[in-house]
Amino acid sequence: MAIPVAAMEQAPIDWEVPEVQVGLWADAWVRFRRNRLAVVGLTIITFLIVVALVSPLLVHFGLLANPIKQNVDSIETGPGVNGHLFGTDILGRDTLSRLMIGSEVSLTVGLLVQAIIFPIGLTIGLTAGYFGGRIDNLLMRFTDIWYAFPDLLFVLVVVSVWRLSGSWFFQLIPIFGAIALVNWVGLARLVRGQVLSIKEKEYIEAARSSGSPPLKLILRHLLPNSLGPIIVTLTFGIPQAIFLEAVLSFLGVGIQPPQPTWGQMVADGVEAIYPNPTGVVFPALAIGFTLLAFSFIGDGLRDALDPRMRR
Amino acid sequence: MHLRSGIRAFTLATAGIVLATACGGTSGPQSQDLASPDKQVLNVNDGTEPNSYDPTQQTYTYEAGVGREVFETLLKSNKDGTDVQPGAAESYKVSSDGLTYTFTLRSNAKWSDGQAVKAADFVYGYKHLLNPALAAGYVDPFFDSTIAGADGYGSVDVSSASAIDTFVSGLGLSAPDDKTFVIKLQHPAAFFKWVVTLWVASPIRQDVVEKAAGGSFSSSDTTKPEVWAQKAETIIGNGPFKISEIVSKDHVTLVPNPNYWGGAPKFTKITEWFIEDANTAFAKYQTGDLDAMTVPLANVDLVRNDPKLSKEAKVYPKLTTFWMTFNAKRTPFDKPDVRMAFAKSIDRDKLNKQVQHDIQQSILSFIPKGMAGYDPSNKAQAFDAAAAKQLLQKAGVSASDLNKFKLLTRNTTRNKTLNQFIVDQWNTNLGLNMQLEVIDSKTVTSRIRKGDFDIYGPDGWGADYPDQQDWFDIFFKASCHSLNWGCVDLPGYDDLVKQADTELDQAKRNADYKKAQDQLINSAAVAFIFQDYEYNLIKGYVGGLTITAGDDQSLPGNFFWHDAYILKH
Amino acid sequence: MAVIAGRPKRGALLPKQFAAVTDSRLGSLGVYVLRRVLWMIPVVFFVIVITFSLMHLASGSPWDKAGGRQLSQVVIDNLNRKYGLNRPIYEQFALYVWNVLHFDFGLSYQYQGKTVVELIGGGWPYTATIGVLAFALIVPFGIGLGVIAALRQNSRVDYATMGFATFAASFPNFVIGALMIVFFSVLMYKWTGGEFFLPAGGWGVDDHLVMPAVTLALLPIAYTARLTRASTLEVIRQDYVRTAWAKGLSERLVVVRHVLKNALIPVVTTLGPTFAFLVTGSVIVEQVFSIPGIGRAFVQAVNSRDYPMILGTTVLFSLVIAVANLIVDILYVFIDPRVRLT
In this predicted complex, what is the ipTM? Predict the structure, then answer.
């Protein structure tokens, strides 16, 4: 096989010629919508957001079991027992209801953390990679320090000096801080590596010699050309942040029980993996679908924003 | 993402000794039923590696689980935990004033290298234990408050070798001859016979310690006296087993001490593994890598419903009680009625029979079932939601006053589960909306020491030995920030308990301790919740085990492993 | 570090006699490595500063116990004196740094009489073995799957890789580990009557290594595969690759000479730290499979506030990460000769 499938499949896209000249974002949106998987991803996420918003109402009107209502007469039951569609947990609470209510916190954690990491990692990585030399050296030695940063200790210090109570969102603020503070380094080095290799390429040389200002050069050429790996890193960060929330809660930073979250459901479920394996499988599936949806959206977004695919 | 996640370690710091619910065969095994010597191997899970292999420096049950096998104390608990029986000493005498204990050592007691055990080894061991520079965890209060001359333990300048020497040589410990060891006490103490059964009160050989250290050393030196305990070859003990191999954080291997006075044990090898994850241990039991293990709570019903495993399961009581502590320094928990209202609004049977799968048993009093002093007659703290609400009203406390309080919880899965249930009970039965506060264990300890909490639990106590003296001093005013976290005010309690501690007449002691226990219950000093039971799987081919309530955690029968064996299978 | 072509090289600042050395490619690499190694000193110093401060800020003392009778103040004072914790904090810090300069990392608080060096030296071989094994799985599988998925975009292989990656990322390794034990130990033992099964934990240089290494490798394989796929897709669309296809070069030639070389930059970037994390231990994998490694030791040290052990482990980790990142930066040059070190 001489020509790979990928190369052939790209061909039709090149011939698309919009009838009217449209802007970057409108154009991207058109191409995003044509990507079936991306639309599926967007649908899943929309569904999850609706679930997150509507579940508290369903509980309020009694259409959904109360996620913190204990019933110790039927603990650790499998799916379908005693009217619990997804079974119950170690205190007899309804797993389906906990999953639905937990989506609110877990989605927020997964997304907001990435939203914090992204600008930090991107700025440092771009700066280091683009300017090189001493700036690069200093910034990268700085990231070396952060790589070795004792985050577990940091979290314990946060516990003792900075405890917020109130609604779950306020409880989450130290979590965002703790996770984001130590996790921008991977992204920064990734972006820097991309920039290092791309900036020596001919078209960048050409742009530079024609006198383009650095910032413009960075945003126009360097960023779009490094988007793929960045999107992968960000989407993979979502489930990791959801699990980290569970670990941090365990250490006392953040969401306290009985408020359910997906990460804590997985962590609690693994203790009872012998009698009730579904307790860990359901929340993991929910996290899996979220990741899948964001991966689809990420792929679609990357394709839609690819400068080489624009007309 | 690289946060290395937190650890799940539930270690009950209190070591258990004592009590007995003897299981296991009473008649000796027929030799044709025994497995061959190469199969006389026992694999058990000790959970965590001892922080030290020097018995005097050990504190936790997982440490005692090694120390006890390798070293033998003067006396030991008998099989049913009602009294002491001879250990390294064949007999002992107490002077009529109760102040002098004279121990006569066995003439045939030998160290694992064949040398005779001498009284001087006990003198050296006790002095090593009581050296303030080494700061052993189990000196206070067992030894510094009993042995003559040891009451100054706290005020010794540990940087000065001469100050230490003066203190140590002034202790009431002596060896008039090779086989006689004499201990003088500060005051009469009927319980002292139990103190010498603590595994930390082991003999230690001066020549072994000094040889490993490369010569004699100053008493203020804190490193050299511990060198001998680092390697299997230099750990010379007088117990039925000796250490043949230490693989740090993985396992320790014990083999028979051929010179043990009672004859070599039948086991030719015991491996104590350090497996922290309960589910991993459960898997290793099922694949035949472990011969005994403690069943994780979540798997209890699974074991009960399994035709094979259910036959290998054993449940037995521990001398351990758990309770919830109220901070009596914070209003309104200074009011006994408020504390009682909380105590009376926990449905213990629901907690223990359902959430804890009917392993742990409800208790409304302090001293656990299985030792002298257990008295279930006082039911003042029994579950009664209506009465609890009335008590709150009587105290003039409304629900909204209480909602700001939190239940401080250590970050173990078990504590988290129990406390979610208990808070739910309070919220349901008292009409509150209280919250939980789950924090890492060290932070919890530092906060309760500072009195920075509202309610904390479950806290517990496990017997070091089955004498009530070991229990009641927990609630002394003086132990306010080392054990009696709630700092609850108990008028007359300290005097009553101290009187019972120094009294020699057992009947009088029991009567005083009963009064003290009633005071704890009636003033709801704490809310008693449950007594701990151990649910173990033990392979059917492990024979001759004598399981007692004092066995170290997850090591069933370890007080009498000398007599246990493996059957043909 | 990388510098834009045309700027004066830093080597020019060196005395003349070094000019011959620094002008040669190998020579300049040598100087570069030497400078980076020297840079590790301030990096490690700041890591010590941060760790030292956080350690002492975290509540709880090394002598607080998880339950039961607490040590009396007297014993605590004695312990503080024994380990020098009664001195002013800046003195403790200076003493620590001074000792580290003499390669003395102190005595553990938790394990009596054991030095930190002994404890780390005892546990690291276990951790490193599993880490290296896992890494050996990650490189071929991660990159291989990623390249195939990119070349056959939207094919079944691509979807299968996507499915696998999603699975690996949404089941955290403590769940994967527990599930593997259920299947490959307990159930296999039952089904085969004890003939074939994998040991549920413990150490052994045999089948004991299978489950820990796989568990540890699963998420990095998934991530590496997705990353390789994304970056390969970027490269495939570049004009020069299209030209190469158009010229009719064989697929293998195009992939190896044009695609892989350019696509590997982000992969190599992340593999460096991944390697460092793997060989310094995963507490979860070590705990689930009961491996006496330093990942577990570090968390235990933090939980018991074993200060010298915390510092020792963190210093080791910072060195490993610095070396790994140095290797990555050197690899850039070999992968893409246009990237330059100074």
Answer: 0.87
